[in-house]
Amino acid sequence: MLKAHPFNWIATIVVIVAIGIWLFISFGYIHEEHLTEATIEEKSHNEDSYYITVDGEKILVEDTNLWMVLEEEKEYEITYEWYATKQPTVVNINQPHDEDSVGGGH
């Protein structure tokens, strides 16, 4: 058990805060990556999921129609996000140097 020595209490508080920060960054923080002029190296799929590989990282594409339109060895602007142990997932994809988003609009 901890004695009433101040160093023990300070060390315990520092460890608890460090573990809390690590847990927040690992499981509570959404990481986002934006790639410009990213080349799709490979497209793949299994029974339920569709993936693209960019810079050696396998990224989930939730929209099947979007996955079908994408072409290997072409460049795109890709934004994807992940958190905790979730698979990185495409949030936004567009042609490079294109000012409007996919689908266009006025």
UniProtKB/TrEMBL annotation:
The chain crosses the membrane at residues 7-30. The keyword Transmembrane applies. Keywords: Membrane, Transmembrane, Transmembrane helix. It comes from the Bacteria. This is DUF3139 domain-containing protein. It comes from Halobacillus seohaensis. The lineage of its organism: Bacteria, Bacillati, Bacillota, Bacilli, Bacillales.
